[in-house]
UniProtKB/TrEMBL annotation:
Record PANTHER family: N-ACETYLTRANSFERASE EIS
Keyword annotations of the record: Acyltransferase, Transferase
Binding site for acetyl-CoA: 82-84, 90-95, 118-119
Source organism of this protein record: Streptomyces chilikensis
Taxonomic lineage of the native organism: Bacteria, Bacillati, Actinomycetota, Actinomycetes, Kitasatosporales
Protein name: GNAT family N-acetyltransferase
């Protein structure tokens, strides 16, 4: 078996092999637009070829930026299109592709990579850890009244909301999303090419949607909710908002829609205050809390020194990377929001697998949780609590982008 890089000439074979691996058939693109795979970057693809010349596996990556705590933007290849034909599973094809891909990413100088996992048991063995999660929130329309307390003296939203068709406001959505993702830890960029091709899921895809667009007091767009109504269920694809006030205004718009039995928010950050804003606290039903973005560190010192930090302190991290056969020990020192990470012979404060380091990297998973789960070993009292304080983010990480 051979693992080789792909070119634009391999697109049809790559797409056919990938779809066959998942038992699917490719949609027919309209002049190259409107299908989720139209934004593939074939210079980042891999094709596994059997000895007889047949393609049997695929793996690819997109070129994204990831927002880290501290509003730091870093390159983050988004691993995608990973599949092996049923005839060649459990023969080492996936492992060979993933090893080759990690080597290629390192050769490009990339410090980390990300993915969305189709199954939760696949990618941990390759060093990926779940770093963000998302919730589905369902609210019955007849119990959807908001009751916003005035005890804190908050001013009413000075902005406005208008309803547009997706086809009429694509450029505005791109603009609003790009400003949002630059401030939100865990968010990924959406390259211009995605919007131009309509690649991905709504509202990037050009499927019919209504959009509640929020503008601030100066008329500048600063939030939107993309939604569709079918069988008296209003489903919100995603809500992008500059702050909680904007989110509340958009939620109020869709929750007040006529001829609706229930409203489903597909992607709500864990711990979001919307449930507390409902007059009936029990009305908001949280369902399908799921992992979303998985993170894999490729260069531990560079990844750790890239993000922002909000507490001073130091920890010795003993990091095991069994898939790449590496074991390293680092002294992480944080002062005034900046980290230094160097090799050390000091005894460890924490011992952990690189996948668990990926899980805590964005601040969404407390280190102490993984200590209690038996994933991370704390070697001294107080080490887990210090790590919790060090790794926290300014706000919970959340990723909306599907790839």
């Amino acid at each position: 078996m051979d693992i080789r890089s792909t070119t634009d000439q391999d697109l049809d074979v790559f797409v056919d092999t990938l779809h066959a691996a998942f038992g699917l058939f490719p949609d027919t693109p309209v002049e190259g637009r409107g299908v989720w795979w139209s934004a593939f970057e074939m210079d980042r693809g891999l094709l596994a070829v059997a000895a007889d010349g047949r393609p049997v596996g695929t793996a690819g990556a997109y070129s994204f930026e990831l927002t880290l705590p501290g509003e730091v933007l870093v390159p983050a290849p988004g691993v995608t299109a990973v599949g092996v034909l049923p005839t060649h599973r459990r023969q080492g094809v996936l492992t060979a592709m993933m090893r080759r891909q990690l080597d290629d990413l390192r050769a490009r100088g990339e410090a980390l990579s990300v993915l969305l996992a189709s199954e939760a048991t696949i990618y941990g063995r390759f060093g990926y850890g779940p770093a963000t999660c998302t919730e589905r929130l369902t609210v019955p329309r007849h119990r959807a009244a908001l009751a916003l307390p005035r005890a804190c003296g908050a001013d009413p939203d000075p902005g406005s909301v208008e309803v547009l068709r997706r086809s009429a406001c694509g450029d505005l959505l791109e603009e609003v999303y790009d400003r949002y993702r630059r401030r939100q830890p865990g968010a990924l960029s959406r390259p211009r090419r995605w919007w131009e091709l309509g690649a991905g899921q709504p509202p990037v895809a050009e499927a019919p949607r209504h959009v509640a667009l929020h503008r601030d007091a100066d008329g500048v767009p600063d939030g939107y909710a993309s939604y569709a109504l079918a069988d008296r269920v209003l489903t919100v694809d995603e809500t992008v908002a500059a702050d909680d006030t904007v989110f509340t205004a958009l939620a109020g718009c869709v929750l007040g829609h006529d001829l609706v039995e229930k409203v489903v928010f597909r992607h709500v950050p864990p711990g979001h205050p919307l449930r507390w804003q409902l007059a009936d606290h029990r009305a908001g039903e949280v369902g399908s809390v799921t992992d979303w973005l998985w993170v894999r560190l490729l260069d531990v010192p560079r990844a750790l020194t890239s993000r922002g930090w909000f507490t001073d302190g130091e920890l010795v991290l003993d990091v095991d990377d069994p898939f790449l056969g590496e074991h390293t020990r680092h002294l992480l020192t944080v002062r005034d929001g900046t980290a230094d990470c160097v090799p050390t012979d000091r005894g460890p404060d924490l011992s952990l697998d690189v996948r668990d380091l990926g899980s805590v990297y964005l601040g969404g998973t407390p280190v102490s949780t993984l200590v209690r789960a038996g994933h991370i070993r704390a070697h001294r009292p107080g080490a887990a609590a210090l790590a919790d304080a060090l790794f926290r983010a300014e706000r919970p990480p959340h990723c909306l982008h599907w790839f």
